UniProtKB/TrEMBL annotation:
<keyword id="KW-0055">Arginine biosynthesis</keyword>
<comment type="similarity">
    <text>Belongs to the NAGSA dehydrogenase family. Type 1 subfamily.</text>
</comment>
<dbReference type="GO" id="GO:0005737">
    <property type="term" value="C:cytoplasm"/>
</dbReference>
<dbReference type="InterPro" id="IPR050085">
    <property type="entry name" value="AGPR"/>
</dbReference>
<feature type="active site">
    <location>
        <position position="177"/>
    </location>
</feature>
<keyword id="KW-0963">Cytoplasm</keyword>
<comment type="function">
    <text>Catalyzes the NADPH-dependent reduction of N-acetyl-5-glutamyl phosphate to yield N-acetyl-L-glutamate 5-semialdehyde.</text>
</comment>
<dbReference type="InterPro" id="IPR023013">
    <property type="entry name" value="AGPR_AS"/>
</dbReference>
<dbReference type="Pfam" id="PF22698">
    <property type="entry name" value="Semialdhyde_dhC_1"/>
</dbReference>
<dbReference type="InterPro" id="IPR036291">
    <property type="entry name" value="NAD(P)-bd_dom_sf"/>
</dbReference>
<keyword id="KW-0521">NADP</keyword>
<keyword id="KW-0028">Amino-acid biosynthesis</keyword>
<dbReference type="Pfam" id="PF01118">
    <property type="entry name" value="Semialdhyde_dh"/>
</dbReference>
<comment type="pathway">
    <text>Amino-acid biosynthesis; L-arginine biosynthesis; N(2)-acetyl-L-ornithine from L-glutamate: step 3/4.</text>
</comment>
<dbReference type="InterPro" id="IPR000706">
    <property type="entry name" value="AGPR_type-1"/>
</dbReference>
<dbReference type="GO" id="GO:0070401">
    <property type="term" value="F:NADP+ binding"/>
</dbReference>
<dbReference type="InterPro" id="IPR000534">
    <property type="entry name" value="Semialdehyde_DH_NAD-bd"/>
</dbReference>
Length: 373
């Protein structure tokens, strides 16, 4: 590709926005021309994130101040809060003439959607287009979906599982971080009939950045440091997303037991998953199938027998590391999946999707090795 893609990042002042920028400034086919942030509007990006200074990036502006279509974007990364994303994206893709920023900039009489012309490709990092059933979305996110006509056009953006659909997509919904780690481990095994769809138990742990950058008492240093605690017990919003994709793989509804935990580290995610094997199947069979399925997948590392995935070994990379072990309980196996929640679990995967959508090698701009120590 000779011409660089003109890229916009909406919601650039959060952790996912920061990691998008960190990765995109080294992407040979991307040029960042738009950065938005509501609370930080008017500030330079280096005043918000000093590590991103010196790259000649545009200042942060409010969404309502974007001069559409003058920015002439090729692709937009939408790192906005749930519910806000669907209204913004509805305007971006269809030029719907209504105020899409009612909650964020209620005082503004102008309509962002009125100023948008043409079509750009959109990669959404929120949960707004991940669930195929909009009624399920309403049940888990507490409000009716505002862009139901777009939901049927959205592609679930887990490249290793839906590569061809992503390549053709105009609206890609990036999976959540917990679902990414779980689905890369489980979907190939369910598709091949190597494990039972029943009695899947996922014990998940994530760094504090997974909770976002907004001020929350539960995320203060004193609350998080030297401790680990579960949250969303029995009712976490990633549960229906995981069940949706496992159900597709199994060809029938799947219900999981899933418990996430907050651990005192900045980034990283590890899931220990307990499964029942089909008759005659061993842990070695699961590993062999992973190796076959992911042989050409540049970002999935299947560990050799006895190899143990860890968050330290994937930190800062777009890699998912998978391991499998025999359980002491007959007929069961233990899967371990590790990712960086901000990279493969969010921003890196979003850029991987962008590469596929524009016909680039999917590894472009994403081949940084994990950081150690």
């Amino acid at each position: 590709m000779d011409k660089k893609l003109r890229v916009g990042v909406l919601g650039a002042s959060g952790y996912t926005g920061a990691d998008l920028i960190r990765l995109l400034v080294c992407h040979p086919n991307a040029e960042i021309v738009l950065l938005t942030a509501e609370r930080k509007a008017g500030q330079s990006i280096e005043s918000v994130f000093p590590h991103l200074g010196g790259y000649g990036l545009p200042d942060l502006i409010s969404l309502d101040d974007v001069e559409w279509p003058a920015v002439e974007l090729d692709v937009v990364f939408c790192a906005l809060p749930h519910a806000t994303s669907q209204e913004v994206i509805k305007g971006l893709l269809h030029s719907v003439k209504h105020s899409i920023l009612e909650e964020l900039v209620a005082e503004s009489p102008s309509s962002l959607a009125d100023r948008i012309q043409g079509e750009v490709k959109v990669i959404d990092l929120s949960a707004d287009f991940r669930l195929r059933n909009t009624e399920t979305y309403g049940e888990w996110y507490g409000r009716a979906h505002q862009a139901t006509e777009l939901q049927t056009k959205a592609v679930y953006g887990l490249p290793e599982l839906y590569r061809e659909a992503v390549e053709k997509g105009a609206l890609v919904a990036c999976p959540g971080c917990y679902p990414t780690a779980a689905l890369l481990a489980l979907v190939p095994l369910l598709r091949a009939g190597l494990i039972e769809a029943e009695d899947i138990i996922i014990d998940a742990k994530s760094g504090v950045s997974g909770a976002g950058r907004s001020l929350k008492e539960s995320n203060l240093f004193v609350e998080v440091a030297e401790a680990m605690h579960p949250y969303g017990v029995g009712h976490h919003r990633h549960m229906p997303e995981i069940e949706q994709e496992l159900g597709v793989a199994a060809g029938k509804p799947v219900t999981i037991s899933f418990t996430p935990h907050l651990v005192p580290m900045n980034r990283g995610e590890l899931e220990t998953i307990y499964v029942r094997l089909k008759d005659g199947v061993s842990a070695d069979d699961l590993r062999a199938h992973w190796m076959d399925v992911y042989d050409l997948a540049p970002f999935v590392q299947v560990m050799e027998k006895g190899g143990m995935p860890s968050t330290r070994a994937v930190r800062g990379s777009n890699r998912c590391s998978l391991g499998v072990f025999e359980d002491r309980m007959p007929g069961r196996a233990i899967l371990v999946s590790a990712i960086d929640n901000l990279v493969k679990g969010s921003s890196g995967q979003a850029i991987q999707n962008m590469n596929l959508m524009f016909g680039l090698d999917e590894t472009t701009g994403l081949m940084q090795a994990p950081m150690f120590p």
